[in-house]
Specification:
The chain has 107 residues and is mostly helical. The protein has 2 domains: 1-60, 434 Repressor (Amino-terminal Domain) (Orthogonal Bundle); 62-107. It is built from 5 helices and no strands.
């Protein structure tokens, strides 16, 4: 979906969208006229629209899209590993706390 179509469907002005998502309204107007945004801005726009406006819709070159998606996948995997580590650490702490409580009860 084109950014202009998405804004119209949500009844949002460029100014309001830009302000709410920390983007430059002048830049947004230039993207609407056909200028290709930098990859970090394109990702911001895609996220802000819930993925309705894609990187392809913003006309990012395919090699950049591949790099961005690979980076996003690596970040997602890292976050999942970190979450698993925290969960395991928390579970280990709970087990050791239960063991300590059980030891105190037995004394």
């Amino acid at each position: 979906m084109k950014l202009q179509e998405w804004l119209a469907s949500k009844q949002l002005s460029v100014n309001r969208f830009a302000k709410h998502h920390g983007l430059c309204k002048e830049s947004l107007y230039s993207y609407l006229k056909g200028r290709v945004p930098q990859s970090n801005v394109a990702v911001k726009i895609a996220k802000a629209t819930g993925g309705a406006v894609t990187l392809e819709d913003l006309r990012l070159p395919q090699e950049l899209i591949v790099k961005v998606r690979l980076k996003q996948q690596k970040l997602k995997e890292k976050m999942e590993k970190d979450k698993a580590r925290r969960t395991a650490a928390k579970a280990g702490k709970l087990i050791s706390e239960c063991t300590e409580i059980d030891c105190k009860r037995e004394s």
